[in-house]
Design brief:
Length: 387
């Protein structure tokens, strides 16, 4: 039996997005709660046939890139002045991996389905290259006035990315090509390679102008429904000189006893997220009987719940935590807690509320025997995912 080909992907992301209006380069803007580039890379990095992903970035974007792709398996390299310079650098960066096949994709096309990737890779068994394309549906005319010529649209196609090729063939073609080719098919055809069309996808439309973002956001959020989850947790005070609350270390005359770092706020919040997604509770995912969770920071639990939701195409909109204790005082640490939780959930800080209350010296929290926390999370989730 033949071995499966080694497949790599390049995501070109070194452009400045000058047509997309003010703000950060378009590939780093949020689209339905996640950076555009994260969606483009995740589609490739999670595909079972793809073994290596390289992102070609602008040198000034190193920090924002690292933040956007946290947890994804992707190697950054620096791009060039024109798109084709960036592609060439991506191809060179893959020399060590030596793939048989490579997909070259625009970071500005975030809604990439695994079905399109499969169609492209399948077409490479018979061709040097394969590209997704769609028919032109509007009438086309040349020139400025109605008297100018009509264009026969039946022969025209809108060509998208990813564009897939046999690696050695496209690398050689790029090494010999002009930098102003608008895409990699042009480079391949100029080198005499055979390129097949496969069915494209309207959702793959490139984000080029400001209005394209609203259209893509609508596509991503259509059919999502809001769900609210709630969580509750308690930890008892014990010996120690600090407690962890909502990801922040707070000096205190006692510690909290727990299997992990006993961050009661993050535990309640993790349960709220799992509850919104109806995915069990924190004990199901991190059994207290398992020694590997002993002493671990609770941000692991929270980011696990976050990733389960994001992997289902979900959006975390807002979270709200109430810490219930007489001491320590939460107020002086509230801003740091909001910042920390926002960063863990990749939310704007306005999407995170942290509150505190006492129980008027009543009950176990009133007697300073421990701290309780309750939390809610509101999340948009789909029953139909992009597959
Ligand atoms: N020197 C360049 C130019 C573009 N690209 C990437 O190529 C893709 C398609 O290009 P385009 O939509 O034209 O992006 P920009 O060049 O960023 O946009 P603009 O032309 O509006 O500035 C984008 O993902 C872009 O980041 C690149 O990697 N290197
Ligand atoms: C590569 C491309 O996305 C294929 O459709 C397109 O050619 C990029 O063109 P742009 O002018 O660089 O946006």
């Amino acid at each position: 039996m033949n071995e499966a080909p080694k497949v790599a992907a390049i995501v070109v992301a070194a452009g400045r997005g000058s047509r997309a209006g003010e703000g950060a380069p378009k590939q780093y803007r949020a689209l339905a709660g996640q950076p555009v580039i994260r969606r483009a890379i995740a589609a490739l990095a999670t595909h079972p046939r793809i073994g290596q992903v390289v992102a070609v970035i602008h040198p000034e974007d190193a920090a924002v890139f690292a933040d956007a792709v946290q947890g994804l398996d992707v190697v950054p390299v620096h791009g060039g002045a024109m798109r084709q310079d960036s592609v060439r650098r991506g191809l060179e960066a893959l020399a060590g991996f030596a793939p048989d096949l490579v997909l070259i994709h625009d970071a500005a096309r975030p809604l990439l389905s695994h079905d399109v990737i499969d169609r492209l890779l399948d077409a490479l068994t018979e061709n040097d290259g394969a590209v997704p394309a769609l028919p032109v549906v509007d009438s086309l005319r040349t020139g400025e006035t109605h008297a100018d010529g009509e264009v026969d649209r039946s022969r025209l196609k809108r060509v998208q990315t990813p564009q897939a090729f046999r690696y050695t063939a496209i690398r050689t073609a790029h090494a010999q090509s002009r930098s102003d080719a608008t895409d990699d098919v042009a480079v391949a055809l100029a080198a005499g390679l055979s390129v097949a069309f496969v069915e494209g996808d309207e959702r793959l439309a490139k984000l080029t102008y400001p209005a394209d973002f609203a259209r893509a956001e609508t596509l991503l959020t259509a059919g999502l429904i809001t769900r609210v989850g709630q969580g509750f947790d308690v930890h008892r005070f014990g010996p120690g000189d600090h407690v962890w609350l909502c990801g922040v270390q707070v000096s205190h005359s006692q510690g909290l006893i727990g299997h992990s770092d006993a961050d009661v706020g993050l535990h309640a919040l993790t349960d709220a997220l799992l509850g919104a997604a109806a995915m069990g509770d924190i004990g199901d995912h991190f059994p207290p009987s398992d020694p590997k969770w002993r002493g671990v920071p609770s941000n692991l639990f929270l980011t696990h719940a976050r990733d389960l939701i994001l992997a289902r195409g979900g959006i975390i909109d807002h979270v709200d935590v109430t810490l219930i204790c007489e001491t320590p005082k939460v107020g002086p640490h509230r801003d740091a807690m909001r910042q920390r939780v926002a960063s863990l959930l990749r939310l704007p800080v306005e999407g995170v509320s942290i509150k505190a209350t006492t129980t008027e010296k009543l009950g176990f929290t009133g007697r300073k025997e421990g701290i309780a926390a309750q939390a809610t999370a509101s999340v948009r989730l789909s029953t139909v995912e992009i597959k």
